[in-house]
Design a protein that fits this description.
Elements lengths: L2 H6 L23 E3 L7 H9 L5 E3 L8 H5 L9 H8 L3 E6 L10 E5 H13 L9 E6 L1 H4 L16 H9 L5 E6 L4 E5 L6 E8 L2 E6 L39 E5 L4 E4 L4 E6 L3 E8 L5 H18 L10 H13 L3 H21 L3 H6 L1 H9 L1 H20 L1 H4 L10 H15 L2
Parallel strand pairs: 1-2
Antiparallel strand pairs: 2-11, 3-4, 3-5, 5-6, 6-13, 7-12, 8-11, 8-13, 9-10, 9-12
Helix pairs in contact: 8-9, 10-13, 10-15, 13-15
GO biological process, one term: positive regulation of translational termination
GO cellular component, one term: nucleus
Family: Belongs to the JMJD6 family.
Length: about 425
């Protein structure tokens, strides 16, 4: 990346309160298209899209060197099933049935990859029809299962990725996915995990995205407060069921071509269709620009759980702990793990600021390598944003009711260390 441009752009790191949560509609439904990598810096992306929380589309030039673009696609732009079977035939993959609604999503099953490819080929031969329904391979952790494969390289614009930095550190999970599906497969209306950012690159095929800026989804709730499964369903026009639908704005529509990358802002609800047989690479990620949004989401989720089981508060001695357990089962994280998430992110940056960037050590350590690429100024920005959220978490009544003796260091000690590192770096 252009370090000089980034380092000089100190205004990007001005502490702008809750600017990361602003999600304004775009004039005329316009979504910017980024054509060339050599004229678009990380600084540009940070200023124009991350901080204001606006979507954009990157051209196919940003992915043309990826191994998957070379090897997973036939000469005429179709999925290269023979190559994929050779590399991944024995893998077991998660597959959703797009023709079945289960609560507000599609039911999933685990299938051998070779069985899914056999189904997909038959589905195409039968005119995109099958008695099994329209099956969509979704949320496959391919990078974790096949780390030696030359699939793609994360663009620098998305390299400040706290979610994957943390889950790699604890070696439990990641938020890097492969999606594969036939023409007509789709994903119902949703916002991404923890209200994270996401990026999605088409290896082959085309997608249609329907995007709603954060907050617009409130107009789409039914009279019980439930969001729709399909925002294109005619039933949404029934005012008796969806009383505020007429107040909603039309969605932003993006048609994503092969090779292009779509950036989805934090908290934007969306619905996605495969217009052709399509393969895509998807990441969810959080960083200093939207960690406050993640924290607000967790507070809202806990409040919803507390409302749901409020009647058991008095007779249940560990009611607050039970609320945390239920929240974690629903969202994948509770308040204590959120503290550990902030701790890992903060300590990685404190280490860099205090010990400097040893190039050899950074080469062996992915988080430090990413921090090295983005520079010291970005590490300070990250720490300032982490400190704000950590201060709020430490003062939170529900957090303080938990047994925090197992947390090391204590929240107070971590916050003191964090602020000291910021002050020293700014001297």
């Amino acid at each position: 990346m252009d370090r000089a441009t980034f380092a000089c752009s100190t205004a990007f790191f001005h502490d702008s309160g809750n600017s990361s949560q602003a999600s304004l509609g775009l004039p005329g439904g316009h979504v910017d298209f980024i054509e060339k990598a050599d004229s678009f810096t990380y600084s540009d992306f940070f200023r124009d899209y991350l901080i204001p929380n606006h979507p954009c589309v990157f051209s196919a030039k940003f992915t043309e060197e990826w191994g998957s673009r070379r090897n997973w696609v036939t000469w005429d732009g179709k999925p290269n099933f023979d190559h994929l079977l050779q590399e991944f035939g024995e893998a077991v993959v998660p597959v959703a049935n797009c023709d079945v609604k289960e609560y507000n999503s599609n039911p999933k099953e685990q299938l051998p990859f070779k069985e899914y490819v056999k189904y997909w080929r038959e589905y195409i031969r039968n005119g995109y029809r099958s008695s099994r329904g329209c099956l969509y391979l979704k949320d496959w952790h391919l990078s974790r299962a096949f780390p030696e494969q030359d699939v793609y390289t994360t663009p620098v614009y998305f390299s400040s990725d706290w979610l994957n930095e943390y889950w790699d550190a604890v070696a439990v999970d990641d938020y890097r996915f492969v999606y594969m599906g036939p023409k007509g497969s789709w994903t119902p209306f949703h916002a991404d995990v923890f209200r994270s950012y996401s990026w999605s690159a088409n290896i082959c095929g085309r997608k249609k995205w329907l995007l709603y800026p954060a907050g617009q989804e409130e107009f789409l709730r039914d009279r019980h407060g439930t969001l729709p499964f399909d925002v294109t369903a005619p039933g949404l026009r029934d005012r008796r069921i969806y009383p505020r639908y007429s107040q909603s704005q039309p969605p932003l529509e993006i048609v994503q071509e092969a090779g292009e990358i779509v950036f989805i802002p934090s908290g934007w609800h969306h619905q996605v269709y495969n217009l052709e047989d399509t393969i895509s690479i998807n990441h969810n990620w959080v960083n200093g620009c939207n960690v406050a949004v993640m924290w607000c989401f967790l507070q809202d989720e806990l409040a919803a759980v507390q409302r749901e089981i409020h009647q058991w508060k008095d007779p249940m001695d560990d009611w607050h702990l039970q609320c945390q357990l239920i929240m974690k089962s629903c969202t994948g994280i509770d308040y204590k793990e959120f503290y550990n998430f902030l701790k890992v992110i903060a300590e990685n940056r404190i280490s860099v600021l205090e010990k400097g960037l040893d190039e050899e050590a950074s080469a062996r350590n992915a988080p430090k390598a990413a921090i090295s690429t983005l520079g010291m100024l970005h590490a300070v920005f990250d720490l300032k944003r982490a400190a704000k959220v950590l201060t709020s978490l430490s003062a939170n009544e529900d957090f303080r009711k938990l047994d925090l003796t197992s947390l090391s260091p204590s929240p107070e000690a971590l916050l003191h260390h964090l602020k000291a590192a910021i002050d020293t770096a700014l001297l």
